[in-house]
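[INFO] parsing input record for G-protein coupled receptors family 1 profile domain-containing protein
[DEBUG] input buffer:
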Amino acid sequence: MFNNNTTILEENQTDHATFSSRNKLCSLLKQVRTGNDITFADFRALCAFISFVNAILAVIAILGNSVIIAAFHRFDSLRTPSNLFLLGLSFCDLLVGLVTQPIFAAEIAFVAANSDTACALKDLYVIFLFSFSFSSMMHVCLTSVERSIAIFYPFRHQHYVTKNNVVRSFVVFWISWTLLTIFTRREHGGGVIGYSRVGFGTFSALVVLVINIRLWIEARRHSRQIQNSLPIYSTSEEGNRETRARTKAARDTKAAKTILLIIGFMILCNLPLIATFIARKFYGVRGRVVTLLWFASNTIALLPAILNSIIYFWRKREFRISVKRMFGWQNAVGIQR
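[DEBUG] output buffer:
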């Protein structure tokens, strides 16, 4: 008798825990079913539009980053250790277009259909959002650190920052990052992932901003020193040395500006998501309108997957020449296969 009661009690506790977990996981769908701030017909129409926009953006992200990766594969001159960090960022953005954004578009569609399938898709979306989209910021941090070593410790940079070491660091990073994301989601739920995204994202952005502003100032200082030290009359060897120094200073300045642009767009695109997350978690804002704002802010947060490839093409001349040559738009010079 006692054993039977114990078994029944354990089953009830298990059912209650399962229901609580399920209820917490489907909180977004629950808001849709109980909200009355707008009609469900209007909500469903806006969800369909946001889902369609995400599907289109996913295709653009796949195409843009596939072009960047194909250029890396075709032209050996692009495969420098510094550019490999940008290649890692392109892979992150490609996975956003291939996995994260389609799952998010499907989640929105199932929410509009008032289907419980949205709950499972929401769980997958949180995992892949943190794995791929947020790891893009980590790659920008790694790129900033690499540029710092190249400018302040050039001899160490040549010795330690090699292609093999960069690839090894990517493998270790991806394995540890993916395992950490899955463990965090299973053990603590999406809330901890949201908090860590806000906190760690803010910290990473500040680190990247400080590093690249310092790099930009240092590169400009080197450029001014080179200009002031130029002799009126110089030998051919001295002139070549000064030309190389000026070219390196200009390249370092442009690289710092490029990273600042990338991190600047990342920060701007994540601000609506952070604001919506804070409103939902700390101020208890609920309803269908807030759900739509949540979907829209997530869509904006995924935009860097497209913007990054545009920045590469705009800011890096070797990428422009490689892509144009790859598509036969011009007989580009200076790029080796």
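[INFO] The chain is about 85% helix and 0% strand.
[INFO] shutting down worker
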